[in-house]
Amino acid sequence: MRNGGGEGGEEERIFVSVRVRPLISQEIEKNDHSKWEIINNNTIILKNNAPDRSVVLPCAYTFDRVFGPNSDTRQVYEEGAKEVALSVVNGINSSIFAYGQTSSGKTYTMNGITVYTVEDIYEYIQKHEEREFILKFSAIEIYNEGVSDLLSSDNTPLRLLDDPERGTVVEKLTEVRLRDKCHLEDLLAICEDQRQIGETSLNEASSRSHQILRLTIESSARHHDRDSSSSLAATVNFVDLAGSERASQTLSAGTKLKEGSHINRSLLTLGTVIRKLSKGRNTHVPYRDSKLTRILQNSLGGNARTAIICTMSPARIHDEQSRNTLLFASCAKEVTTNANVNVIMSDKALVKHLQRELVRLEDELHYLGSTHTTTHLDELKEKDTKIIKMEKEIRELIQQRNLAQSRLHNLLSSVGDDQALRLTEEYGRLMPKPNAHNLYEDDHSSRHWGESIQLSVGHQPVASEDESSISQASGISYHSPEFGISKCRFPYVNDSYDRNHLKSENSVNSARYFPRNTYQSPRIPQSQSGSLDDQCKEVRCIEINDLKKKADESSLLLDDCDSLLPMTFEAKEPSLKAGNSFGLALQNQVKMTQTSDNLMKPVPDVLTPRCANSQENPACSTKSFCLEDIKHNNNTPTYSLLKDFQRRPENVSTGNSSASSGRETEVRSRVSQKLEISTREELKVEDVAIASEDKLRARGSKNAYATSIPSISNHVEQLEEVPQSQNQKQLVQNQEMHQNPNENYKVEEAKNVASNETLSSSSESPSQWPSEFKKQQREIIELWDTCNVSLIHRTYFFLLFKGEPTDSSYMEVEHRRLSFLKRINESGTVASSLKNLQRERAMLHRRIQKKLSSEERNNLYIKWGIEVDSKKRKMRLAKLLWTDTKDIEYVKESASLVAKLIGLLEPELVLKETFGLSFMPRECRRRSFRFNLMFSSR
Ligand SMILES: Nc1ncnc2c1ncn2[C@@H]1O[C@H](COP(=O)(O)OP(=O)(O)OP(=O)(O)O)[C@@H](O)[C@H]1O
């Protein structure tokens, strides 16, 4: 029902009066008369104002009213407080203060003022029967900066709360609804009893606290339309302040001294507030510096009418205090307040008001919803949709990867000598377009997230004869953009070879160059094709969807190739559509650069061929892919392809070369740029994958982290695929060699190419590799230490990879994955990997006893600075293993010792390809351990 309101208040000054009490008995005894003289109702002067003083102080003080010793309290009330006090019945807040030094008569005055006001209020109520009044009373005491309820026996200090409408309110303050005047008088008596009073040398009953008696009056019309009319509500405060005092005068000590200091401090704040207010409201007013000013904030310069009665003693001993009181009073009279009539709305009026407010707020809400909120929600929805789409794509890729891994495994296990022989016989057979269902026919997905790049292997159904012929002649099979899967073959066609012959016969292509991670499709006789459907397996590159954009760009670029190359090829053999096929091959190669097993190698300058034409290098025959040229260059597959690309138009051009050369150059340039971009973006893609892992971890759930671990494993598995595909390639090449000795030289060339591929992927500059290897080795050793990698893994890796050019891939992948692990460890998995490491050291410690003779052990203790007779020397030795990562000799010794302890005598027998599998931090310590032991027992 309540609602603060007001009717136009006007600023008015605080009404300030001064009351000089008569001399009390003890002052009379001392005959301590002062020279204060009240010259009229408004002015008080100090007679004989110290002419001997060097500083002349003001001697006349003027106020709204000055009461002399002969004025009784009734007069003081009537002339100094009544008007203000009774404002409360009209809905205006009011406050009457008594301010002055101790024993100056504040309590004496305020008691009278309160009684008279109450009398008048009740008299007013009686006179205004048309209105109904509700009176409520509460009483606050502030003692030693603690607020208490004088109407409650509970002395627990009360809290002050800030109410946006009512200002500072005292929490849990008792508010008693008054029955009648007598009820109020009883309550006043209770307050008097409750108040902290003590005896000082100046006052037998000195008030040691500030007292605020609060009377709230609500009134409303009694007979009229009560529901629609307004009510008034206001509060009058009767504030009897504790008196300022000098400890020397009051002879205070102990508790009294503490009380006095609190009193003086709060009065000082009151004085500061008054002084600030007297200078205007532009400055900060420190209401909150004391409980007193905080509670009375409204009465001091706020929505209230205020009267201050400053009391003073006429005794000479109090002259200085009296002067201070007058100075305070002088400031107070400059302070203005702005009192309003506080109107309380009726229920009806309040409902109407609230309805209007509701409509207004709804309008605001609608406006906000139509702008910011809606937009924000749309953005969120859009992002959610993208996330769902990406998650679906990732799942599909993982399915493909798992399927391919499964088939690669099948291939490796099923391809025996006979099979290999047959496959070699069917060498060159083209595969038809892949069946979408084949790619999804089984699902070994383990729902790994955060995949970035995958290699895959899959079955291919057999192509039709026509397709086979055409594609075979062109040397390119097909690609399936719908799955982002590409497959390509690269023919070797020598000088003597007739392209038409190539189209009509199913023999010939004895040696082919395979790009990395592709597998040469064997030519399969028609009679066996059906049975070999499942045996024809090819390694294919599966792009991740994140790279689609690049693939599309590549496609656009290759369209250029397609449009360029037919101009050169079609003149001689239009039916081959070699240009288009070559475009596909190039596209395939571009995609190859986007796969992980290229290991983000910078693409060499493909437009700077070693030999520009056949004259410079006779080995580069016309109308052929120059294997010699490829072999002698440190070519990546991409490089080889592009060199072919450079050479081919020149070789087969029939006169249009000049017309096409400009466009060709442009296309080459664009190819080069795209490839470089691809490489750079490939790096970004992995960053995205890592960021994806980070996000999953950042979600904070254990599940998120758990899903990130398999993802790392997948990442590790990519390494496994590299050598596998290489092995497979090597296997087929060996089979070819065995099948057709006449073409062994070509197979040999192909092998050399493969070797060169590895070399080229290992290092851009072989001459720099040794130093690069040492640098990477040092960093890897540091990272092992940082990531708490298994000592056995370190040992194997360290002993296996000693700086051969082919070690480059492993070094790089190890380095990158350790960096990746380091990031994970930084997010809190160090503890678990450290525990694993400690267990491993414990295992090695036990093996020291078993594997080493007493003499060997003692030699080691001496060498490693451990006292031979010391306790726990074996454990100390185990703890020293692999700890100094800076000293390479120390690392070597650590590796050597660990190798001996785990029984690793011939590390070279362990395939390097097995690496990338063993050093992930594992959830299950035992499994991890068993794996290492199993590994070590090989
Ligand atoms: N106008 C007055 N006429 C006669 N006696 C008075 C007058 N004012 C005060 N006294 C007397 O002076 C003494 C001190 O008065 P009072 O206790 O009201 O002072 P106070 O300012 O409240 O002191 P304190 O701050 O220590 O509480 C009392 O004995 C009181 O009766």
Radius of gyration, in Å, reads 50 Å
Main beta sheet, described? Answer: 10 strands, mixed
* Annotation, overall tally of beta strands: 23
Count of individual helical segments: 29
Structural class: alpha+beta
The averaged pLDDT comes out at 65
Note the gap between the termini: 88 Å
How big a fraction of the residues is strand?
5-15%
The ligands bound in this entry are: adenosine-5'-triphosphate
Helix content: 40-55%
Shape: elongated
Poorly predicted sequence stretches spanning 5 or more consecutive residues:
1-7, 423-661, 674-764, 916-938
Can you put this structure into words, describing what you see?
With 938 residues, the protein is an alpha+beta fold. The chain has 29 helices and 23 strands. The strands form 6 sheets. Strands 2, 6, 7, 8, 9, 12, 15, 16, 17 and 19 form a 10-stranded mixed sheet that branches. β10 (160-163) and β11 (167-170) form a beta hairpin. α2 crosses α4 and α23 (769-787) packs across α25. The longest helix has 68 residues, at 347-414. It starts with 6 loop residues before the first strand and ends with a helix. 42% of the residues are buried. The chain binds adenosine-5'-triphosphate. The site of adenosine-5'-triphosphate has 18 residues, from α4 and β14. Residues 21-22, 24, 100, 102-108, 203, 205-207, 242-243, 311 line the site of adenosine-5'-triphosphate (ATP).
